[in-house]
């Protein structure tokens, strides 16, 4: 039982990332009908927003510290971060420590602006083109964004730390009555899971309970009729593209302490997230979220040494095997809608 609970917990953080990326993909496909292969690059750029914020807050200048000396007795020159000199050591140091959560303030305008630029500058020209054309152009855009990140930040992963408050692990075993140190789970992974639930709940609430969201849902069902009512549905769909980009970016920001940002992390998550979308059902937002968590947990179970000793490499292909089984039994996915990509 403890091994089962541990694998479920281990699958939640990766399942959260899958669910958030797949949610954004489904938002774009459901509103604009575009298969966006650049969505994984948005996840990557979000992670690098955390890197940029961390570097900005650590910008420093050289000062002489009279309390410290070198081996000759001369005062040492040390680096003083600007934020510590402006706001004091305690508050400025706190800003540096909390650079990842603060990166959200940077990521939201950057990702929304990038989403608007992508939709207005490129993707709008491919609305009526075949899905194959959309895949090719957005995949090419993803490669361009990936190479830009590689040029400015290099090819190596960049460690990004979470706040010290969440640097340890929580002993779930004691809470559930098991022996101490039986089920240990990092605090930041718990934070990421809760963060994902908040974002997912916020998106669904926005679509369900606001007038803007109701119009968007109506446009997803019948775009022409909504347009005939005098509503500028194209503008609303552009905003939804920006929202989807922001969701992917925020997923990347908070995932940075879990997986050190690197230029190819977007591609690593993109393919799996598209599988999640297909399994959940094309155009189904609840299906994308459900499939994201489900496949993340199944991948965690497949990563157990006991399972890999029986079926070597199963952790690398389990998601695709599950996708094949589900699509053979339910061709539209778990919660797919009739008529979506069936023409």
From TrEMBL:
One of its GO terms (cellular component) is plasma membrane. It is a multi-pass membrane protein. The chain crosses the membrane at residues 15-35, 42-61, 102-123, 135-153, 190-216, 237-258, 270-298, 310-328. InterPro entries: ABC_transp_permease, BCAA_transport_permease. The keyword Membrane applies. It is found in: Cell membrane. GO terms for molecular function: transmembrane transporter activity. One of its GO terms (biological process) is amino acid transport. It holds the Pfam family BPD_transp_2. Keywords: Amino-acid transport, Cell membrane, Membrane, Transmembrane, Transmembrane helix, Transport. Belongs to the binding-protein-dependent transport system permease family. LivHM subfamily. This is Amino acid/amide ABC transporter membrane protein 1 (HAAT family). It comes from Rhodovulum adriaticum (Rhodopseudomonas adriatica). The lineage of its organism: Bacteria, Pseudomonadati, Pseudomonadota, Alphaproteobacteria, Rhodobacterales.
């Amino acid at each position: 039982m403890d091994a089962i609970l541990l694998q479920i917990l281990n699958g939640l953080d990766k399942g959260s990332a899958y669910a958030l990326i797949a949610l954004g993909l489904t938002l774009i496909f459901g509103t604009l009908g575009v298969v966006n292969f650049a969505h994984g690059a948005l996840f990557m750029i979000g992670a690098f927003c955390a890197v940029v914020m961390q570097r900005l807050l650590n910008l420093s200048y050289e000062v002489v510290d009279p309390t410290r000396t070198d081996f000759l007795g001369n005062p040492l020159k040390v680096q003083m971060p600007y934020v510590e000199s402006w706001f004091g050591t305690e508050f400025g140091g706190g800003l540096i420590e909390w650079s990842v959560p603060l990166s959200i303030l940077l990521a939201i305008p950057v990702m929304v602006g990038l989403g608007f630029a992508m939709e207005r500058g490129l993707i709008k020209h491919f609305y009526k083109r075949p899905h194959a054309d959309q895949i090719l152009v957005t995949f090419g855009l993803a490669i361009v964004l990936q190479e830009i990140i590689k040029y400015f930040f290099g090819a190596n992963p960049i460690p990004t730390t979470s706040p010290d408050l969440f640097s340890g692990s929580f002993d779930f075993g004691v809470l559930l009555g098991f022996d101490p140190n039986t089920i240990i789970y990092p605090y930041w992974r718990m934070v990421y899971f809760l963060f994902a639930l908040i974002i997912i709940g916020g998106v669904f609430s926005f679509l369900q309970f606001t007038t803007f969201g109701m119009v968007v849902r109506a446009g997803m069902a019948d775009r022409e009729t909504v347009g005939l009512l005098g509503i500028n549905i194209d503008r609303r769909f552009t905003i939804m593209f920006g929202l989807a980009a922001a969701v992917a970016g925020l997923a990347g920001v908070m995932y940075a302490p879990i997986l050190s940002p690197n230029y190819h992390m977007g591609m690593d998550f993109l393919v799996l997230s598209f599988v999640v979308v297909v399994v959940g059902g094309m155009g189904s937002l609840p299906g994308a979220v459900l499939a994201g968590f489900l496949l993340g947990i199944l991948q965690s179970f497949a990563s157990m040494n006991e399972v890999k000793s029986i079926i070597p490499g199963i952790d690398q292909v389990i998601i695709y095997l599950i996708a094949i089984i589900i699509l053979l039994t339910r061709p539209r996915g778990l919660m797919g809608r009739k008529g979506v990509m069936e023409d």
